[in-house]
Amino acid sequence: MIDNHQMPTGTAARTLVSQRVPRVVLADDDVLLREGLASLLDHSGFDVVGQAGDGTGLLALVRSVEPEVAIIDIRMPPAHATEGLQAAQVIREEQPGTAIIVLSAHVEADQAMDLLAGGERLGYLLKSRVTDVEAFIETVRRINAGASVVDPSLVRELVRAHRRHDPLDALSPREREVLALMAEGASNAGIARRIFVTEGTVEKHVRGILTKLGLHESETDHRRVLAVLRFLESR
Amino acid sequence: VITILAFDWYFPPSLRHFNAATTLVLGLLLVIVSAVGAFAALARRRATGSEQARGILADEQAALRRVATLVARQPSAEEVFAAVTEEVGRLLRLDGAHLHMYERDGTATVVGAWALGTVPIPLGSTVDLEGDNVAAAVFRTGKPARINDYTTAQGATAERLRAMGVRAAVGTPILVDGRLWGAMAAGSLGTEPLPADTEVRIEAFTELVATAIANAEARAELEQVAAEQAALRRVAMLVARGTEAGTVFTAVAEEIRRFLGAEAAYVIRYEADATTTVMATCGDAGFQPIGSKWAADGVAAQVFHTHRPARIDGRRSSGAADGEIAGQAGGRSRVGAPIIIDDRLWGAAVALNFSSGSDLPAAAETRIAKFADLLTTAISNADTRTELAASRARVVTAADRTRRQLERDLHDGIQQRLVSLGLKARAIETMAPRPPDALRDELSFLVDGLSTVMEELREIAHGIHPAVLSEAGLGSALKMLARRSAVPVELELNLGPRPAEPIEVAAYYVASEALTNAAKHAQASVVEMRIDGGHGALTLSIRDDGRGGADPSRGSGILGLKDRVEALGGTISVRSPPGQGTILRVRLPADPNAGPALAPGPQ
């Protein structure tokens, strides 16, 4: 799961994260949900500076307010297909500094990897994750701070896929657990908190996993996510 | 003998060279031998042990030898006629003999000619049956006839015979199955009338000839029927196989042309504006292109008005279009038959002779009509098939659309609402500055419950319609299927350009069903799935290493897929030998709307 331990909330968060309150824009065609999410973020140390109901509105908004974070529903008018994903790509090209979190009713590997190939500070999550408020807020924060995050349900699907000659068979159950968390985008510290071990132990596991799978050490957490996902998807 | 002849004379060149040549030659030998034998017997009875009898016997021997030599050379029909005519002349010790075949138009054609000391009427000559001559007399009465002195005979033929020096002649009818087929006429240059028994002596011969012709005609008819059946069967096979209608049209035009020995044949469709559209052509002529439009003229017009077969013989009649389609100015002989579908005139099949000068055979109307009937079936089948496929495709597509809509309603409607409610519950938490633990617990319980519901809802929605399919395409959807499969899947994807949505959906369900079967029934340990796109088709080959023995006719899974695949114009095959795994192969057109379509005519 997403790192959700030692969660600061409310005013405490503002002082913890940075001097500057991250400015967020929301794009979702469901007004009720959008307002709920805005209120949630506003209460959690973010500043929701604008809302849009479709991709075009979102792009105009992002261009004018240049937010730190954009949270985007994947399905929006006019076709309710992948408008959000397309808008995300445009934002990434025009304003690479904006962190992007794409929310979707369902998650899918190719989509996730296409999105993550766009660079750092990207998130791809099931929309229902927002109801786990603390975890969601923490995830938004982590993404804003540089992490890339993939929904655990997608990682679970990738890890559980049956393969005839499965390289994952070489991993211990604990190593599998660590691998899944790596794929979700957790840092070593995050993994350590999640599985109640020291960061040093996690580092040992990570090295073991990479060796067994023939993967190289990645320079950043983002690259690590991408590498692990690609490996899991194509193994 | 004359066998061949009769056949040869009546029917088209393509049928002249039938394989029974040997049989016919044997038949010919038999006829000649019998004829000579019968005649010899007759002669023996009449010439009482005299020198004359011995001479006749010698002639018989000579005739036999000549015929035997001839037969050994495998003669043409013309040679046989010539030989028979000559034998009659020689054996009766006359100066000339002609074998006449009566034509429908009241003339006779000379098909055998022999003369001694004079020049006979050339073969193929048309003999006028007016005036005084034995061929005409036999034609009028159906009985033997004689003219003892041609010097006073009237008419062009009599004039011609006089010029040859003919003085006396005898003619005997050749009756084939009670029908007057022709006449053998034999004459002398001498002033004496021919002996009184000449008619009887020729008759003994012509009866055998008639029998031979009757046999030949019966055989020819059989050959004809057989050839017709074969031709019809070839077309019927095409129809049964569901061959594209355009190909059937062309095949019919070709069979009609070959069968009738016509110079050209074509199929037209009547249009609402009283024109015709060329659907297929065949022949040596410079045809107008398929799809070009022409005025309904000539036989096409007659068939159009009467809804019945029609014939126009002779150049004088109007109807340029009949020939124009074949790139010819008019036609000498044209026969057309209607193609009627559901009591509605759809089009016509037409055979045409324009330069050979001969009329199409008498039975052409009924023969073309038989082929036209096959076209009726072909077109109805094609129409029905097209309609059926379209309606099946509509049903499948409508069902898919409903499922997709359902999936959207679940995701964008219900799930969205649930997320909102979850957020609302969390918001309640923040309303109280220090919420009591009991309230927090209840709210957590509520939100956890909502999360579970949302997860279940997501799975249900995925089962109804995999959103990944419409959003990310078949490749992503199949990869997801493979990941979720209980049996390991080795997936090989060679997708070309993205196919139409119904095709993607069908391919997805085929793969999904195959993987379910592999896991549930086949006890397979691995599934190899290969998908190839491009070249206007999408093919799936799915092979498992399970126990095989799957019966596609049992269990609705594969049957349902078959319906879906075939509705889109695709094919599906299952091979599942016991103990050797199951192979499912599916081929789908990239564009389901590219199937053959036939616009029906107006009538």
Question: What does this entry look like structurally?
Answer:
- The complex is a heterodimer of chains A (235) and B (603).
- Chain A has 235 residues and is α/β, with parallel strands linked by helices.
- Chain A contains eleven helices and six strands.
- In chain A, 51% of the residues lie in helices and 12% in strands.
- The N terminus of chain A is likely disordered.
- Chain B is α+β, with helices and mostly antiparallel strands and 603 residues long.
- In chain B, the strands form three sheets. A six-stranded antiparallel β-sheet of chain B has the order 3-2-1-6-5-4, with helices on both faces.
- The longest helix of chain B has 68 residues.
- Chains A and B meet through α2, α5 and α7 of A and α12, α13, α14 and α15 of B.
Summarize this structure as a short list of keywords or feature phrases:
heterodimer; A: 235 residues; alpha/beta; six-stranded parallel β-sheet; 11 helices; disordered N terminus; B: 603 residues; alpha+beta; 17 helices; disordered C terminus
Secondary structure: elements and pairs:
The complex is a heterodimer of chains A (235) and B (603).
Chain A: H1 10-17, E1 23-27, H2 31-42, E2 47-52, H3 55-65, E3 69-73, H4 83-94, E4 99-104, H5 109-116, E5 122-126, H6 133-144, E6 149-150, H7 152-160, H8 173-184, H9 188-195, H10 199-213, H11 221-234
Parallel strand pairs in A: 1-2, 1-3, 3-4, 4-5, 5-6
Helix pairs in contact in A: 3-4, 7-8, 8-10, 8-11, 9-10
Chain B: H1 2-10, H2 13-16, H3 21-46, H4 51-72, H5 77-91, E1 96-102, E2 107-115, E3 126-128, H6 134-141, E4 145-147, H7 156-164, E5 168-176, E6 179-188, H8 198-240, H9 245-260, E7 264-270, E8 275-283, E9 293-295, H10 298-306, E10 310-313, H11 320-324, E11 333-341, E12 344-353, H12 364-431, H13 437-464, H14 467-472, H15 474-484, E13 489-494, H16 501-520, E14 527-532, E15 537-544, H17 556-567, E16 571-575, E17 582-589
Parallel strand pairs in B: 13-14
Antiparallel strand pairs in B: 1-2, 1-6, 2-3, 4-5, 5-6, 7-8, 7-12, 8-9, 10-11, 11-12, 14-15, 15-17, 16-17
Helix pairs in contact in B: 1-5, 1-8, 3-4, 3-8, 4-5, 8-9, 8-12, 9-12, 12-13, 12-17, 15-16, 16-17
